């Protein structure tokens, strides 16, 4: 709740006007039966056409005014909901920009997308419904009762009784419904998950003869949902039934008691119409509001999910220090320990090495040995628990992330391109890049295929780069990094999608291009890194060997095993 | 992916779909609700009673009001106060009360009876769909997107349930109420009824006017929503790159642009949707004003009684809403029928040929496999494999190599009977696999696919998928053999880590290792590895190979691999090209031959 108020704050005036306008609807609804009653009373009493015409004109005016007011209110409502939706989405996105990988993974990409899109949608919808259907209810109840009292004290009391009865029942049913609807949503999600698994895993489950088991699993999720759904429907049926009962009791009571009051001269015959209408209106508004209120807990959950993101304090903060001019050592790990929160085993333990200008450092190791984590730590996507990572002579925690990353050109393991043109993607690396620079970077990255495309640099790139092959995508990602002037170039397993020839040509071109910067290559293939100045062998998060290819082949058994697993016929000639 | 399916919030029901064969679909639906026929008959009976009472009650109350009024006037004339007593109006009021009680009773009966109707139907259809899934040939899944199949079971059925849930009963009662009310209104005063009808026509016209605009604007909003969706998805997925290249500000700028555009169109669309009800309410109220004016005049003229005046308004209230909602309701019903029609179409898809009756059985296969003159094509028009024959002896390791699209996976698919051969036979332990039940055949195989499939459950559950009663020790042993034990222990909850929708922390390689552990635990007679280690590094691959060799001693295995390092020790290497086997033999034989395999080998192991 507090959060929605925060988002409404800039639009205080809009809110006030909206509420005022919504009032008109209630006034109009109550005024018409009042005037109708007056008409009957006049009609049967004074028999004056002119009075009836006068009341008619007034009714007409009230109807048009309140109608126009309500339509205007709908407009204001739409404006408000559009504005807070936009503000929430922007706030969410901008907040995540400050998140570390770890912060972000706490929510997960899928969930973050859902929060930014669906959750905001639901909150918007609930907001509109609340203003249009819930807020008028108390006003309607109070005004309805007041109007009844103005006709007759006894009838006013009757209406108070009925209103209270309706509200008590409504509160009771809403409480029950909130629980059912909460579980209903969960069951629906479950159906989605189970079915999706069954479709995407069809080969596996058939291979394992799991058809019957899966059928049971699906059936269980369907039944849970159906049972819950039926429960919810019964509740609605009960609500409807209750509404009809109350309405009918009301009409009968008004007739009986009203008849007496008229007989005693406290009110007139037409007032029966007015009172019946008041009662029905109150009932109608309460029931309508209830339909909405039942759905509000879901919106509340969404709101909480949004709030969880917005109030999450990022684990990484910028420092205020300044980097020194990079001299010889570009960056260094000093006894670094890193472990994911709650994990039994540390991902990296006691890692120390440094990258020097003009030199290539390579990291090799098994799947899951922590190679990519080193690159991510250098970019400060996570913070370490022990030791220090130094870049340009200063601990990277003491400087701004922006300044740090400005000095690094990074090629990620998964070559992700953004939708747009090839040129747009290259400008990601360097906004001021000229066409000549782009061409040069593409050539170095062995991405000459771009020049043979009919539209060259302006070729369209689909989201993720899916309209290019894996190898092409990888080379474009490399070009994107190369176009940047940086002190450190990181290639995270960027060569494995390339065939051997391209790999070799690329490395040759790279060594020519990058001469006064440090290079960090994370690789799987020994060929890729034989010529590196130093090779780090990682095993289960620890350094198992550090040296040149030659040294490691002699001293490090793990390195030798890796090499042997890739050498022709198991021979180890180092070529 | 999940998110797109959920975008139902803005399905306002303005897009109308029409069924192609309404009558046929309806008849079939009638059959699908067979066990609920009695229920429907009772509801129909109740609806009839409900309608009669609902129409009669205002009429009766008109009489009461008139009598009360007469009595009051008479009493006033005598100068005494009037009191309602049992004789003086009380009896009639009580009878009216009973009538209303009847209305309440019947409405309650039908509402509760119908509460489970639609959900039962949708449960039935959902179950049919899930059973159908297991009878569909794999080619169906190749041809259709997951989202499409998924939407039958979720969107379509939900739409149907929603429409039927409230719609069906409303359709019954509204029809009755509209007819009954109109008759009574004409009975009371034809002129007033005509005024009423004019305004109904007007509000229908307003509805039509709005819905045309709304449809257009809602589509536009949907498009903007799609744009924002794409952007959000793209930026969240590529967020490391955005950060690594310091593009935070420019991406936020583009995001703000897109959300602004969305806000603009949403405002317009929402306004139309929100305003339609108040607008119609205004038209209806204006109608009531006119009716009241005319009725007032008739009252003075003595054409209309006080009771009739009040009863007339009750009829107006009873029939105005169903009438203005009629077109919307018909649309909803049509869409529901169209949804059901799609589901029936799905249920009518061609199924797998059933297992042969006189089935033979193979238990704990020795692993003798033979392909004899096998011909196969995924479509009738295009034959992929022309004539495949080879023999595998028990305990052999068979490797299948070749470029993408050469038919490596197809070979395995045929062996597992995921697809049926067009000609020729496949034998397991000398028995034609066609004569075995699919279940029995597959019991003998363990399979690991390139696309590692994990389901939402713990890691332990995923590994134990093929052997539900496996102990924790067995699970850990399998994980160790698959070289994934260390990694699992670095995860926050170890083997009890739940793999949710976002399995981001687990790389493709690690997922493959988990599925290998799963296959190893199931301990099959014949193991099939289809690019099972394509995302795993070479050394780990080699280690797994060693571990597997021990586990799979004396068992037949098929290995499809891109990297030749994995398969050099195979007993038989099948080299495939364009669906056919072009070379076969051991590594040494094929290298000596210096043809296709040798070229492939040299291209992969070229040094600097």
Ordered list of secondary-structure elements with their pairings:
The complex is a heterodimer of chains A (575) and B (608).
Chain A (H helix, E strand, L loop, with lengths): L1 H7 L3 H34 L3 H49 L3 H7 L1 H26 L1 H16 L1 H48 L1 H6 L3 H53 L7 H40 L18 E10 L9 E9 L3 E6 L5 H8 L7 E6 L2 E2 L5 H6 L1 E4 L8 E2 H6 L7 H10 L4 H4 L7 E2 L8 H13 L5 E5 L7 H14 L4 E6 L2 H4 L4 E6 L2 E6 L1 H7 L1 H10 L9
Parallel strand pairs in A: 3-10, 3-11, 6-9, 9-10
Antiparallel strand pairs in A: 1-2, 1-4, 4-5, 7-8, 11-12
Helix pairs in contact in A: 2-3, 2-6, 2-10, 3-5, 5-10, 6-7, 6-10, 7-9, 7-10, 9-10, 14-16, 19-20
Chain B lengths: L1 H5 L15 H11 L4 H42 L11 H26 L1 H19 L2 H6 L2 H43 L1 H48 L1 H6 L3 H54 L4 H42 L21 E8 L8 E8 L4 E5 L6 H8 L7 E6 L2 E2 L5 H6 L1 E4 L10 H5 L8 H10 L3 H6 L17 H15 L3 E5 L7 H14 L4 E5 L11 E6 L2 E6 L1 H7 L2 H9 L4
Parallel strand pairs in B: 3-8, 3-9, 6-7, 7-8
Antiparallel strand pairs in B: 1-2, 1-4, 4-5, 9-10
Helix pairs in contact in B: 2-11, 3-4, 3-7, 3-11, 5-7, 7-8, 7-11, 8-10, 8-11, 10-11, 15-17, 19-20
Structural write-up:
Chain A is an alpha/beta fold and 575 residues long. Chain A has 2 domains: 2-310, ABC transporter transmembrane region fold, CATH 1.20.1560.10; 318-407 and 524-575, 3-Layer(aba) Sandwich (Rossmann fold), CATH 3.40.50.300. Helix content of chain A is 64%, strand content 11%. Chain A is built from 20 helices and 12 strands. Chain A has helices spanning 2-8, 12-45, 49-97, 101-107, 109-134, 136-151, 153-200, 202-207, 211-263, 271-310, 371-378, 401-406, 422-427, 435-444, 449-452, 470-482, 500-513, 526-529, 549-555, 557-566, and strands at residues 329-338, 348-356, 360-365, 386-391, 394-395, 408-411, 420-421, 460-461, 488-492, 518-523, 534-539, 542-547. In chain A, strands 6-9-10-3-11-12 form a 6-stranded mixed beta sheet, with helices on both faces. In chain A, helix 17 (500-513) links the parallel strand 9 and strand 10 (518-523). In chain A, helix 6 (136-151) runs antiparallel to helix 7. Chain A is elongated and about 115 Å long. Chain B is elongated, with a radius of gyration of 36 Å. The longest helix of chain B is centred in the middle third of the chain and has 54 residues, at 248-301. Chain B is of the alpha/beta class and 608 residues long. Among the domains of chain B are: 19-189, ABC transporter type 1, transmembrane domain (ABC transporter transmembrane region fold); 190-303; 448-523, P-loop containing nucleotide triphosphate hydrolases (Rossmann fold, 3-Layer(aba) Sandwich). In chain B, the strands form 2 sheets. Chain B has a 6-stranded mixed beta sheet, with helices on both faces. In chain B, a hairpin with a 2-residue loop joins strand 9 and strand 10 (580-585). Chains A and B meet through helix 2, helix 3, helix 4, helix 5 and helix 7 of A and helix 1, helix 3, helix 4, helix 5 and helix 7 of B.
């Amino acid at each position: 709740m507090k959060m929605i108020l925060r988002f409404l704050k800039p639009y205080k005036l809009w809110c006030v006007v909206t509420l005022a306008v919504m009032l008109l609807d209630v006034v109009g609804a109550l005024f018409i039966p009042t005037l109708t009653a007056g008409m009957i009373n006049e009609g049967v009493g004074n028999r004056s056409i002119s009075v009836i015409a006068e009341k008619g004109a007034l009714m007409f005016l009230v109807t048009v005014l309140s109608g126009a007011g309500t339509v205007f209110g709908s407009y204001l409502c739409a404006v408000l909901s559009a504005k807070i939706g936009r503000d929430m989405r922007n706030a969410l996105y901008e907040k995540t920009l400050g998140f570390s990988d770890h912060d972000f993974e706490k929510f997960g990409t899928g969930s973050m997308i859902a929060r930014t899109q669906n959750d905001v949608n639901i909150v918007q919808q609930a907001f509109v419904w609340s203003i249009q259907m819930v807020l008028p209810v108390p006003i309607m109840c109070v005004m309805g009762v007041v109007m009844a009292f103005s006709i007759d004290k006894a009838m006013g009391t009757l209406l108070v009784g009925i209103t209270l009865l309706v509200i008590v029942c409504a509160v009771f049913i809403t409480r029950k419904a909130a629980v059912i609807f909460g579980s209903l949503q969960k069951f629906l999600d479950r159906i989605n998950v189970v079915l999706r698994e069954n479709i995407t895993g069809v080969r596996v489950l058939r291979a394992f003869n799991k058809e019957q088991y899966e059928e049971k699993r699906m059936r269980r999720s369907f039944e849970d949902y159906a049972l819950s759904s039926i429960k919810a429907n019964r509740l609605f049926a009960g609500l409807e039934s209750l509404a009809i009962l109350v309405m009918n009791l009301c009409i009968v009571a008004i007739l009986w008691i009203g008849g007496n009051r008229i007989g005693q001269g406290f009110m007139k015959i037409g007032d029966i119409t007015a009172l019946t209408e008041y009662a029905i209106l109150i009932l109608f508004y309460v029931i309508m509001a209830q339909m909405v209120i039942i759905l509000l807990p879901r919106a509340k959950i969404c709101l909480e999910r949004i709030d969880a993101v917005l109030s999450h304090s990022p684990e990484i903060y910028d420092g205020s220090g300044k980097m020194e001019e990079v001299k010889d050592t570009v960056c260094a790990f000093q006894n670094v320990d890193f472990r994911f929160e709650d994990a039994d085993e540390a991902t990296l333990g006691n890692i120390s090495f440094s990258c020097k200008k003009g030199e290539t450092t390579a990291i090799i190791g098994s799947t899951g040995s922590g190679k990519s984590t080193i690159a991510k730590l250098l970019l400060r996507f996570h913070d370490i628990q022990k030791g220090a990572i130094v870049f340009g002579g200063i601990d990277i925690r003491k400087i701004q992330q922006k300044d740090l990353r400005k000095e690094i050109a990074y090629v990620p393991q998964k070559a992700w391109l953004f939708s747009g043109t090839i040129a747009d993607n290259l400008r990601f690396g360097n906004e001021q890049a000229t066409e000549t620079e782009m061409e040069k970077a593409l050539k170095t990255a062995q991405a000459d295929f771009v020049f043979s495309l009919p539209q060259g640099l302006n070729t369209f790139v689909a989201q993720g780069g899916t309209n290019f092959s894996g190898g092409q995508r990888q080379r474009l990602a490399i070009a994107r990094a190369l176009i940047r002037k940086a002190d450190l170039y990181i290639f995270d397993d960027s060569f494995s999608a390339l065939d051997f020839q391209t790999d070799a040509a690329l490395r040759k071109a790279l060594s020519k291009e990058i001469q006064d910067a440090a290079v960090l290559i994370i690789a799987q293939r020994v060929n890729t890194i034989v010529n590196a100045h130093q090779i780090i062998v990682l095993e289960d998060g620890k350094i198992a060997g550090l040296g040149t290819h030659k040294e490691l082949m002699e001293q490090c058994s793990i390195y030798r095993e890796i090499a042997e697993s890739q050498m022709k016929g198991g021979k180890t000639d180092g070529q | 992916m999940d998110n797109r399916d959920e975008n139902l919030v803005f399905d306002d029901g303005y897009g109308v779909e029409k069924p192609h064969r309404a009558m046929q679909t309806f008849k079939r639906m009638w059959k699908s609700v067979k066990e609920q026929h009695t229920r429907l008959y009772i509801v129909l009976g109740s609806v009839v009673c409900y309608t009669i009472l609902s129409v009669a009650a205002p009429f009766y109350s008109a009489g009461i009001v008139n009598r009360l009024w007469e009595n009051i006037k008479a009493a006033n004339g005598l100068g005494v106060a009037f009191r309602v007593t049992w004789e003086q109006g009380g009896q009639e009021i009580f009878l009216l009360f009973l009538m209303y009680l009847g209305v309440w009773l019947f409405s309650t009966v039908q509402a509760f009876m119908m509460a489970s109707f639609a959900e039962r139907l949708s449960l039935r259809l959902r179950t049919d769909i899930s059973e159908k899934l297991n009878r569909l040939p794999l080619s169906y899944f190749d041809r259709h997107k997951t989202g499409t199949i998924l939407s039958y079971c979720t969107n379509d059925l939900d739409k149907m349930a929603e429409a039927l849930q409230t719609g069906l009963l409303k359709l019954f009662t509204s029809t009755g109420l509209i007819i009954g009310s109109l008759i009574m209104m004409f009975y009371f005063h034809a002129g007033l009824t005509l005024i009423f009808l004019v305004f109904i026509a007007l509000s229908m016209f307003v509805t039509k006017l709005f819905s045309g605009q709304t449809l257009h604007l809602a589509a536009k909003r949907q498009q903007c929503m799609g744009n924002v969706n794409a952007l959000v998805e793209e930026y969240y997925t590529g967020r490391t790159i955005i950060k690594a290249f310091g593009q935070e500000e420019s991406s936020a700028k583009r995001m703000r642009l897109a959300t602004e555009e969305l806000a603009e169109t949403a405002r317009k669309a929402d306004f139309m949707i929100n305003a339609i009800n108040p607008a119609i309410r205004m038209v209806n109220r204006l109608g009531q004003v006119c009716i009241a004016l005319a009725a007032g005049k008739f009252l003075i003229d003595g054409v209309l009684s006080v009771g009739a005046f009040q009863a007339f308004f009750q009829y107006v209230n009873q029939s105005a809403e169903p009438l203005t909602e009629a077109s919307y309701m018909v649309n909803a019903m049509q869409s529901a029928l169209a949804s059901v029609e799609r589901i029936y179409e799905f249920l009518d898809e061609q199924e797998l040929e059933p297992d042969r009756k006189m089935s033979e059985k193979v238990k704990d296969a020795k692993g003798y496999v033979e392909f004899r003159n096998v011909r196969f094509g995924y479509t009738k028009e295009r034959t992929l494999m022309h004539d495949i024959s080879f023999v595998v002896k028990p305990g052999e390791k068979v490797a299948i190599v070749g470029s993408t699209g050469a038919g490596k996976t197809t070979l395995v698919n045929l062996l597992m009977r995921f697809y049926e051969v067009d000609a020729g036979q496949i034998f397991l332990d000398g028995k034609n696999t066609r004569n075995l039940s699919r279940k029995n055949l597959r019991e003998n195989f363990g399979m690991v696919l390139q696309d590692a499939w994990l389901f939402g459950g713990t890691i332990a559950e995923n590994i134990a998928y093929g052997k539900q009663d496996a102990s924790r020790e067995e699970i850990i042993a399998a994980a160790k053999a698959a070289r994934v034990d260390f990694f699992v222990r670095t995860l926050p909850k170890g083997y009890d880590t739940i793999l949710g929708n976002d399995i981001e922390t687990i790389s493709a390689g690690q997922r493959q290792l988990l599925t290998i552990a799963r296959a190893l635990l199931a301990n099959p007679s014949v193991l099939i590895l289809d690019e099972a280690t394509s995302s795993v590094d070479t050394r780990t691959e080699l280690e797994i190979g060693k571990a597997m060799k021990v586990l799979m001693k004396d068992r037949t295995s098929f290995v499809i691999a891109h990297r030749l390092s994995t398969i050099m020790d195979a007993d038989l290497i099948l080299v495939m090209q364009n669906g056919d086997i072009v070379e076969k033999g051991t590594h040494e034989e094929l290298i000596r031959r210096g043809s296709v395999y040798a070229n492939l080998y040299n291209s992969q192991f070229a040094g600097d």
